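quick one, two chains, predict together pls
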Amino acid sequence: MTPYSKKEVLLQTENVSLAYDGRTILRDINFCIRDIVRPGLQQGQVVSLIGRSGIGKTQLFRILSGLRKPDRGKVVIRERKPAETGGGAIEIWQQRVVEPGDMGVIFQNYYQFGWRTVRQSLMLAARQNKCLAGKEESAILDYAARFDISDVLNHYPAQLSGGQQQRVSIIQQLLKGADFLLLDEPFSGLDVCVLDKVTELLLQVSLSDELKTLIIVSHDIATSVAISDTVFILGRETGREGSTLVKEIDLMERGLAWCPDVRREKAFAETLAEIKSCL
Amino acid sequence: MFKPFATLNRTTFLIMVIAQAVFTLTVWQLTPAGLIPHPSRILEALGELLTSKLLIDNLLVSLLLTVKAMFYSVLITLVFSYLSVIPFFNSIAQLIVKCRYLTLTGLIFIFTLLTRDGGALKLSLLMFGIVPFFTTSFLSVLVRIPAQEFELCQTLGYNRWQTLYEVIIVGKADQVFEIVRQNFAIAWMMITMVEGLNMSEGGIGALLIKYNKYNDLPRVLALQGVIFGLGLCFDYALGSLRRWFFPYTKL
């Protein structure tokens, strides 16, 4: 098994609850995501939140992204802040409640402004990233080449295929510079070939920075498990209203993380069965 | 051609429209002469009007007034519509929308007192008539903005002013052209009314009233034809300008 260790908490939800029209949707959601360190490697985190349709995944997604405030509880993130000291520029760490704009958010339909070309959309995001000041154009060209969309930079969203729209959405949020990337049902409606490409793309993103953390909200159990290091299962408990986290599965512990042929492993099939039994 | 939801190509559609127009005009021409003049008589009157300086001069007066009124109306509409997202100004925008129920005729005296000459009076009356319709259309565009447009701004870390600029000012610029195009008919209809209220500077409306007074129906209908044709030209020009300025609208 690849050696690894879990370090600082990067994101923590504390008793997150949400009700709608007097009906509890989410109840006491508690989980934390830690920085996973692998010696000699730059390794980000890939976490999946799995649950059946209608269980409240999208609401949890909106709360995690800061677009919706929970009725109770909070989502706390740990972030890097540049600071000046007598000895020069350093990075300090601080914890705070998540706000809109803290996370890179990729919606299910990869929504982009219809009036902006791909280049303009990416520029809007790059200009929000102070670290890219003066280097926005080169950063866009670099990402476009890596994600194979160089030839559509001057196209409008309506001229792009679904896969291209997804890549543009991902690049846009990466250019913004957020450490966290939230993805809502990224595997939904993709054919097998595209699915493999998307999986590869997400793994590539997770390896781009030690603190890069992908949070995938999905009901596609097999694909989510195949690319994640940790899985949280959202489900309902008998006799109690609202959904909550019913199980956390550490895929690293089971030797199922960072393994290209994980689908062939016996433990993979067993894990899928275990997850299904929890849903 | 006679099936529901059937699609026709551009050429077929054009041929169909021309054939329908020719058929209607032929039937009209062949019906026994009565009070309503035949198309040939209207064409004759149009020819006479075109050769005289009268039509061109009055048409230019009306066109200039319409363009001026449209320009100022769009400006006022945009200012109040953009500001309507700020709660303090929303009530003003809503009041403007409700002003479409006011009639111009009852306000002529007030506007006469407030303006210095006939030209200013016509311009202000036109603007007062147009702005509520423009504002109504533009506010309905703002109401229909999908939540995702605002959410994308939030995820990009935009503040409220940046969101206003990106989603409403830049994002809905093409809609301004569409609203002008759709509401131009209202302005064009009002101009004849306003020029009829104040005939001091002439205009196509004043000309229409003059010919109506003398029951010169061929010239009245010829003028209606000119007004109709010009309206169609403006409609086409504004549509083309929109596609040219905002290429994404034709995708």
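Chain A has two domains: 5-103+178-278, 109-177.
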